[in-house]
Amino acid sequence: MAPAEKPPGSSRFRFLQGILPIDRAQIPAEILAGVTFAALAIPEVMGYTRIAGMPVVTGLYTLLLPMTVFAIFGSSRHLVVGADSATAAIIAGGLVMMAVPGSPQYIAYAGMIALLAAVFLIAASLLKLGFVAEFLSRTVLIGFLTGVGIQIAIGQLDGIFGISRDASGTFLQIPHLIADIACCTHLPTLLLSLSVIAIIVLSRRIGTKIPGAFIAVVGAIVASWAFDLSSCGIAVLGTVPGGLPVIAFPDVPLSEVPGLFSLAVACFIVILAQSAATSRAYALKFSDTYDEDTDLFGLGLANMAAGISGTFVVNGSPTKTEMVYSAGGRTQLCQLATVAVVLVVLLFITRPLAYLPSAALSAIVFVIGLRLVDLRGMISLRTRRPVEFGVALITAFAVVVVGVEIGLAVAVVLSILAHLRHSYRPLDTLLVQTPRGAMKTTPLTEGRQAAEGLMVYRFGSNLYFANENHFIKEVLGLSRNARPPLKWFCLSAANIGDIDYTSAEALKSVILELKRTGVTFVMSELGDPVRAELDRDGITAMVGDDHIFEAVQDVIEAYLKSGGPEH
Questions:
Q1: Are 332 and 74 in contact, with CB atoms under 8 Å apart?
Q2: Contact residues for 211 (Cβ-Cβ < 8 A; gap 6+)
Q3: How far apart are the first and last CA of the chain?
């Protein structure tokens, strides 16, 4: 089912498309869903700050101005914008070599990355580039997010075991971690971490309406305060500043901005792919309207709000969107209710966060990382598409070994190669008539003819420089091996939407070679744009107007009238 037309009244506004029109009967459910979502999102975004190397309070900031801005300017009624594990990992992977995590310089760099990503997103929106998201295939996204999940999970093991380590890079951490676990594990910290993980897992198994992460955070804070866990050597967050974020442009010298471009581009690609896919999926589910370019504009403004409010890149999150859906939220009004809860927390309830054990956040982030590891998707790929499984595996391996930023570059390259692979060797077929006169496809290996001496060949994709040699070999091979010998060879162009210069020259050489061997070349099912290209390239004149037909049946009829097998 396709997304529905825009609801009456919403077209009068250039904003609030994710909220209007408001169903008054749904308002209580939206508010309740917003409060429920806040209970889960607050500890989750606090965990994302640990991934990103940012102060804990900046995670709450991602649920304030950025979420408000997207609710106003985005088009999707369902997409939830906030901190995200993948973009947080990209930021940390690049900035850890440039500044000390959590330092003012590090925070400024993170804010500038958000502003640069905002520029890219707004430019993509104005240029109508939302369709680009479709070029990052689901296969490489499965591999990419699986790699990110493994990297995140391994990166939190030191906090879970209470080990202090200086090694950098997930791959390099493993030997040190194995050695340190045996001699340096802090048992009270490990027990606390395992308790938090157990609470999260059990809450999902039981199906409690109160999020397990929320229960774990509250319980850890209460236990830390009541039993003074810091005296047992368990590290706690310490003072968490309250109040509203300071609005200011990140203090980054212009000379250092170019060094942040690659990180901003990496975040931009992830935002583009995940947000568009999530908006599309939920619009289809509810038959709602959405506009991917408007959403890109809203995401750009949301990241601009993040950049000037002291926090880091925000993304349209599939997991948060599903959380809101499960809680009963159906419009951006739910997100505004969440913003109100976060505002109350920032103004009045940050003091208890000082007692939160750091190990509790490590445990929460560890579970987040494991959830990103898509074992079901990888197994499905292995069973159904072994080649694509290899692509996903290479992507995941690249993320784990060389880092998220380079891993994303590998993912993009593999997506392009996968697309080229499909178009380089398309599914080409021969067409023959059924007893009732309809046309059906048959494999090339059968070499069947539509009529004695007439072969109809359907090419499976656009003709361009990468597959023109494949096209030449197939056409000439079919002609040479045809039994009985061919008199006419028809190219069915139903699947050809474009012919570039290189393939046009290749097509000319095929026509001349067939003519040299006494075979007449004809064409059918040409679209108007392709016909115009053939006219410009002189191919129409080579073939002749009388040998270009609208349908394959017309080709067969003309062939038989011309004398056909007896000619």
A1: yes
A2: 36, 39, 40, 43, 203
A3: 52
Tokens of 559: 């062939």
pLDDT at 101 over 60: yes
Q: What is the Cα gyration radius of the chain?
A: 30
> Among 239, 195, 232, 190, which Cα is nearest to 213's?
195
Contacts of 61 (CB under 8 A, 6+ apart): 245, 306, 309, 310, 311
> Look-up: residue for tokens 């950098």?
168
Closest CA to 356 of 16, 56, 51: 56
Max Cα-Cα span within the chain: 101
Confidence grade of residue 190 (pLDDT, cut at 50, 70, 90): very high
CB 502, CB 465: distance < 8 Å:
yes
The answer, yes or no, to whether residue 370 has pLDDT greater than 80, is yes
Q: Do 482 and 514 meet the contact criterion of CB atoms below 8 Å apart?
A: no
What's the topology of domain 429-566? Transcription Regulator spoIIAA (3.30.750)
* Strand duo 520-524 + 548-549: pairing: parallel
Residues whose CB is less than 8 angstroms from the CB of residue 306 and which lie 6 or more positions away in sequence, other chains included: 61, 62, 65, 66, 111, 114, 118, 312, 313, 314
The residues facing 439 across adjacent strands are: 433
If one counts every other C-beta atom within 10 angstroms of the C-beta of residue 178, the result is: 9
Cα 437 to chain centroid distance, Å, stands at: 45
Indicate the DSSP class of residue 310: T
pTM of the model: 0.74
Residues 56, 62, 67: CA angle, nearest 5 degrees: 155
As a whole number of angstroms, the distance between CA 254 and CA 335 comes to 35
Q: Give CA angle at 374 (368, 377), nearest 5°.
A: 160
**Domain layout of the chain by residue ranges:** 10-419, 429-566
pLDDT above 70: percentage of residues in the chain: 93
Query: pLDDT digit string (tens) for 500-555?
Result: 999 999 999 999 999 999 999 999 999 999 999 999 999 999 999 999 999 999 99
